[in-house]
Specification:
- It contains 4 helices and no strands.
- By secondary structure, the protein is mostly helical.
- The longest helix is centred in the N-terminal third of the chain and has 21 residues.
- The radius of gyration is 25 Å and the shape is elongated.
- The chain starts with 15 loop residues before the first helix and ends in a 6-residue tail after the last helix.
Length: about 110
């Protein structure tokens, strides 16, 4: 005979306390991850909105993004490219500037 649901023994892991602990651990991990990548999160938002990336004014990445961003904005004003295409160009410029700022390629 099978045991009735009332007489079965419950595991500690099936309780509300265990679920609450699991939620707290997941929340703590998400907060720790956000804290560790806070500069990445803020920097990407500034670059995506068309602004200059966070950092020093003499930072090679900031200089590169400012230069390329101005060129792309001018192309939009001149009607050479559309706004949607400009966003793609800015994304690609960010990759180029990150690569050249890290020294993996030399920009001329």
């Amino acid at each position: 005979m099978a045991a009735s649901p009332d007489t079965r023994r419950k595991s500690m892991l099936d309780g509300a306390a265990a679920r609450a602990v699991a939620v707290l651990v997941a929340l703590a991990a998400a907060v720790a991850l956000a804290y560790l990548h806070r500069d990445d999160i803020r920097g990407s938002a500034a670059v995506a909105s068309g602004g200059a990336p966070a950092g020093k004014a003499d930072d090679p990445f900031s200089k590169c993004m400012t230069e390329h961003g101005a060129k792309i904005d001018q192309m939009v004003k001149d009607g050479v490219v559309q706004a949607a295409m400009a966003a793609t160009f800015k994304d690609r410029a960010e990759g180029l500037c990150r690569a050249s700022a890290s020294g993996s390629t030399k920009a001329k």
